[in-house]
Amino acid sequence: MAFRSRREKLRSILSGGTCIHPGSVYDAISIRIAEDLGFPLGMFGGSVASLAVLGDPDVTLITLTELAEQMRRMSRASALPVLVDADHGYGNALNVRRTVQELEAAGAAGLTIEDTLLPPAFGETKAQLVSLEEGVGKMKAALDGRSDPTLVIMGRTGAASISSIDDAIRRAKAYEATGVDALFFTGIKSRAELEAVVSATRLPIVLGGAPDELNAIDYLASRRVRIALQGHAPIAAATQAVYEVQKALREGTAPKALKGLPSAELTHRVMREAEVKARSADLLGLKK
Ligand SMILES: O=C([O-])CC(=O)C(=O)O
Ligand SMILES: [Mg+2]
Predict the structure, then answer these.
(1) Does any ligand 1 atom lie closer than 6 A to the CB of residue 229?
(2) Which residues of the chain does CATH 3.20.20.60 include?
(3) Per CATH, is 4-232 categorized as 1.20.1090.10?
(4) Average pLDDT of 218-222?
(5) Burial group, residue 76, by CB count within 10 angstroms (0-12, 13-18, 19+)
(6) Would you state the pLDDT for residue 209?
(7) Which ipTM did the prediction report?
(8) Which of the two ends of the chain, N or C, has the fewest CB atoms closer than 10 A to its terminal CB?
(9) For 109-144, what is each residue's pLDDT tens digit?
(10) Whose CA is nearest to atom 5 of ligand 1?
(11) Does the pLDDT at position 219 exceed 80?
(12) How far, in Å, from the CA of 38 to the mean position of ligand 2?
């Protein structure tokens, strides 16, 4: 299967003894840059998907089709394995199954399904969770939707910050029992909380945003954390860069006087221009 080796690379991160930081990726350019810099994994967050595709905040307006298409564009541009934040699976458990099918076909190496109630309920200002039973059903549906057994499926819970650490553990154990490949936690606030989770579970752990005391990568590795996210600064930096250059142009700066532009070498590398040239020479009869 075409995407198998990417998935096996993610599996080897999960079964290894170290903890890695993934590169935040959201389009064909960002994934190639992450790949060239040597990141072992790309993280395609739901928040950056919404921002890159719709220009929206993370409010669950992006559709599965849009998410999968953006994933497909990245899979085409680069062989870097990508872990996709598939939110709540875009509906109920039946939708989760469909979500897995689409993201698998789009080339995701792995994906997370979370137990947050999305989109938020009317009148609720705080995040809520679906029941543990519904969460379990979603994990089972995700596993049922997978046709390549190397695709990584992670059960994700935000219970640590939404309900309690005990609830996070209860849910993690139930998701673990469904046969998912890893557990993804957001909202863990301290080493004590992480250690409680670690001793109650056995699967590899992925941590979403974490406070400073959870930033030491060797400590995380020793606690079975295999992937630790670092937010999504690259798309934020891209926003600033586009703002600066458009502002300068709007204010009359000559294109040649612009600051902060990439070198020709970087632009050509990102475009994989040497490969395109070689292909053009072979297929279009152009000079190399
Ligand atoms: O998955 C992540 O990187 C964190 C998250 O939920 C998002 O950014 O939507
Ligand atoms: Mg998200």
Answers:
(1) yes
(2) 4-232
(3) no
(4) 97
(5) exposed
(6) 83
(7) 0.96
(8) C
(9) 999 999 999 999 999 999 999 999 999 999 999 999
(10) 45
(11) yes
(12) 24
Task: Report how far ligand 2's centroid is from the alpha carbon of 283 (Å).
Answer: 42
Our answer on whether the CB atom of 172 is closer than 6 Å to any ligand 1 atom is: no
Q: Is the CB of 35 under 6 A from ligand 1?
A: no
From the CA of 50, give the closest atom in ligand 1. Answer: 9
Q: Take atom 4 of ligand 1 and give the residue whose Cα is closest.
A: 45
Ligand nearest to the CA of 48: 1
pLDDT of 210 reads 82
Nearest Cα residue to atom 1 of ligand 1: 45
| pLDDT band of 253, cuts 50, 70, 90 | very high
CA 196–ligand 1 middle distance (angstroms): 23
- Give the tens place of pLDDT for each residue, 13-71: 999 999 999 999 999 999 999 999 999 999 999 999 999 999 999 999 999 999 999 99
Give the separation between CA 150 and CA 1, rounded to whole angstroms: 10
22 neighbors 42 (Cβ within 8 angstroms): yes
Q: In the predicted model, what is the mean pLDDT of the chain?
A: 97
